[in-house]
Amino acid sequence: GIIENMSGFKCPHCDEEINIFSKDGGKNAAKELNIPFLGAIPLDPKIVPLADSGKPIVSSVNDTQKIFEGIIDNILAEIEK
Questions:
Q1: Which structural domain range is residue 14 located in?
Q2: In this predicted structure, what is the pLDDT of residue 60?
Q3: In sequence order, what DSSP letters do the residues of 25-63 get, joined into one string?
Q4: Euclidean distance between the first and final Cα of the chain, in Å?
Q5: Which of 20, 25, 75, 79 stands the most exposed, by the fewest C-beta atoms within 10 Å?
Q6: Domain count, the chain
Q7: What is the Cα–Cα distance from 19 to 60, expressed in whole angstroms?
Q8: Which is nearest to 20 in space by CA: 33, 8, 10?
Q9: What backbone torsions phi and psi does residue 65 show, to the nearest 5 degrees?
Q10: How far is 17 from 9, CA to CA, in rounded Å?
Q11: What is the pTM of this model?
């Protein structure tokens, strides 16, 4: 399956999501290749300091945590097929 990385940027000041790169590139590629689209991970400025300090990303950034959990659920669903 495909996981789209750097899918939009969430402004740390207003929470608006800005598409820096083309939108839905991962979804479109998955559709063209006839493989599952597993999710999209946005650029999140909160991730870098957590990763640099060795803290788990998914336990500290609420919105990003939900995105990773959704991707994990999608991967598990594909494995069960």
A1: 2-80
A2: 66
A3: HHHHHHHHHT--EEEEEEE-TTHHHHHHHT--GGGT-HH
A4: 13
A5: 79
A6: 1
A7: 24
A8: 8
A9: -60, -45
A10: 5
A11: 0.79
